[in-house]
UniProtKB/TrEMBL annotation:
Region forming the signal peptide: none
Keyword presence, Transcription: yes
Annotated protein name in UniProt: TetR/AcrR family transcriptional regulator
Keyword Transcription regulation: yes
Gene3D superfamilies: Tetracycline Repressor, domain 2
GO molecular function ontology, one term from the record: transcription cis-regulatory region binding
Domain HTH tetR-type: 9-69
Amino acid sequence: MPKKAYHHGDLRAALIDAGLTLLETRTADDLSLREVARAVGVSPTAVYRHFPDKSALMAALAADGLARLAVVQHAASDAAGGGVAGFGATGAAYVRFALANPALFRLIFANPISLPLHSGEKEDDAMAFLRANAALLAKGKGGDAQVIALQAWAIAHGLAMLMLDGQVPVDETLIDRVIDTDAIQG
């Protein structure tokens, strides 16, 4: 009797979900393809059907993490009523996402991510949202939308990293005070 082939509904998605779950308790450097395969219940060789190496899996995890960050930022903007208040809320949400998902956040930014500054460059949802909000802020207070986008990103990312690295204490009120759209010049 021939051995029945293993069939998983969507192995690629299951591997990404398992990887994301494992990142909740360890760093990306400590994550192995074998461990992800074991968490899904497949042989380590099954992983290679979807990811040729660990770097490919890490890139997929980072892309999924960036999409999750975009969802959190959209929700924060909507909850703040959009506009300038929504833009500020996205920065605070960015920092809080980093604090809640430190390994995933570090993985996202360990993979090349660029802020497309020229039309025609591919951008993900989080970066498109940042550009749109920066354009809104530039229109309202004047200034260069590209510069505003970079300033906002630098402030939120810098604060997130300082808090993750223990250089600045994690303080919810400090996050809201530092992420202040009035401080951005453009």
